Model the fold of this input.
Amino acid sequence: MTSMTPMTPARLTAGLLLAALAIGAAGLAAGGDGWSFAWVEDWPLLAGIRAPRTLGACLAGACLGLSGAIAQGLFRNPLADPYLLGSAAGAGLAVTLVVAAGALAGAAPLVAGTDLLLRVGLVGAAFCGALAGVAATLALAGGTARPTVLLLSGVVVGVIAAALSDLLTLLAPEALRGRQAFMLGTTSFLGWTGVALLAASLAACLPVAVRTARTLDALVLGESAAASLGLDLPRLRLLLVATMALATGAAVAQVGLVGFVGLAAPHLVRRAVVVTHGRLLALSALAGGVLLAAADVAARSVIAPRELPVGLLTAVLGGAYLLALLRRRSAP
Done:
């Protein structure tokens, strides 16, 4: 009887890269009228819509996977996600504010994609709102020295921002549709500009996160043990939080609130291989890209020619995965 070959980081990396290539090809083929591999005839459609959408989904997923791995390492909790520190609530409030302001000013109902200027405004508002949410959490917590207080501050900021978003929606009901499109998550409006911004954000965040991964390794041993190693924990935590905020803000600004990718990607990597945080961060980014790209292809194909919101699909699949995991762990 032969034993199975154990999974190694190299094997996992190769598998994820092959999956990314296969899903990328599927993304180029998936369209509103079904799948088509006539790429020469469909070249304008591929170059203008499908290619940036597929690549953008992969990059956004990579940003979320990286942020999730950072969050889980910082809080030493495998169920932490990138939105814990108020970035999602801040982005949602900013988008609702922009949409409500336009509606109250007498503009037509604001829906993403109806106007280029509006789209740029919503993307900018979501990005700034995500960073503002994290900044408010840091200010309320008095820095990053106390992780529990930081986590609770994120919850407070999230609750307040969500309440303000609901209030704005009551004042301007026309804003509900635009807010809903953002909250459900979508990759429909990704273009080459968005791809470039996501690529730049990932290129800036991933090296910083990997270089500071030793901090996350040390935190596994506990606060006291990490401090005894001579690490400047408050400064390094702040750097990691800023990195997480930038990566999350970039993804949220382009695709809205897509749940479970940031939670599931590092979790799946840890179940496959045992690695230090340096490799975990890189592999989580790669796994997150594969997950969101696959979800994007499925969202385009399940009820074609209509599309499912990709955030809705990831939430359903992520919830089913966590439920299965819970049942497995609670089984006698």
Notes: The radius of gyration is 20 Å. Confidence is low (pLDDT under 50) at residues 107-114. Residues 86 and 146 are 16 Å apart (CA to CA). Residues 43-75 form the longest helix (33 residues).
